[in-house]
Design goal:
- By secondary structure, the protein is of the alpha+beta class.
- It has 4 helices and 13 strands.
- It has helices spanning 26-32, 96-115, 121-140, 145-154, and strands at residues 52-56, 61-64, 70-75, 83-84, 89-94, 160-164, 169-174, 181-182, 189-192, 197-204, 216-220, 228-232, 246-248.
- The strands form 4 sheets. Strands 2-9-7-4 form a 4-stranded antiparallel beta sheet, with no helix packed on it. The chain has a 4-stranded antiparallel beta sheet with strand order 6-5-3-8.
- Strand 11 and strand 12 form a beta hairpin.
- Helix 2 (96-115) packs antiparallel against helix 3 (121-140).
- The radius of gyration is 35 Å and the shape is elongated.
Length: 249
């Protein structure tokens, strides 16, 4: 563009040392779209728009194991995607070791009842301690307190023990099948609580300087226009993906 020199004696405002003034005619300013505004101090907001995907909250995932060797006698959860509530029956398992422990518990239970009538305090306490030890062994093997109460009430050893869900959610994986032998290392079910989920957003490394924990975020879905979900940044992945130069937030 054509520059119009302005000399010091022609300038209407003081000249700053080391700077040269440039004057533009109103027509030139209109063509260039030049606007001026007085300098002020204020808070600047920046919005980062990116894409993301809905993901499972890994803190709400539960692997269902057994703590003993057993055999699957019956399945109550038969397919992936089935919804279960906390305490629901997942499978009925037969374990010879667990059957023997139930028998030991009944022996300790009946012995405690007899010894409780003894006039010797140490004898009565010994029966109570023996019963509590047998009870703790069943609890450590994830036998539900309700099942132990049923064992006390009926006095009958159950051949199978039910495996219960420890949290509500959806079955994402099922490896248990009828008749299979189960070892403690086997994962029978993967159950995920989807009442709260993660949104994994891709943020370019050039924008990371403006991202911090606790920042507000809004999520929209293309197939649900007009609806917005709000959340906050809870985690910033420390690793940049080489192919896309993005970071999961």
């Amino acid at each position: 563009m054509d520059f119009v020199p302005v000399y010091e004696d022609e300038a209407s405002s003081p000249v700053v040392a080391g700077r040269a003034m440039v004057a533009l005619s109103p027509e030139r300013r209109q063509i260039l779209g030049v606007r001026s505004e007085a300098v002020t101090r204020r808070h600047l907001d920046r919005t980062i728009r990116t894409v993301g995907r809905v993901a499972m909250d890994e803190r709400r995932l539960h692997h269902v194991h057994t703590k003993y060797e057993a055999y699957v006698e019956k399945l109550y959860v038969n397919f992936v995607g089935q919804m279960v509530r906390k305490g629901d029956h997942l499978a009925a398992l037969y374990s010879p070791e667990l059957v023997a422990t139930q028998q030991e518990y009944l022996l300790a239970y009946h012995a405690q009842q007899r010894l409780a009538q003894s006039g010797i305090a140490s004898v009565a306490q010994g029966g109570t301690d023996l019963l509590e030890a047998a009870r703790q062994r069943l609890l450590f093997w994830d036998v539900a307190p309700a099942d132990i109460a049923t064992l006390e009430r009926t006095g009958k050893v159950e051949r199978t023990v039910d495996l219960h869900a420890e949290l509500p959610g959806y079955v994402l994986q099922k490896s248990a099948v009828h008749g299979m032998r189960v070892m403690p290392a086997d994962i029978l079910f993967d159950i995920a609580d989807l009442s709260a989920v993660w949104i994994l957003a891709d943020v370019y490394e050039s924008d990371l300087a403006t991202v911090e924990l606790g920042m507000a975020a809004e999520v929209t879905l293309p197939y649900q226009p007009g609806r917005t979900w709000r959340g906050r940044v809870a985690f910033v992945n420390p690793i940049v993906e080489p192919g896309t130069r993005t970071v999961k937030v």
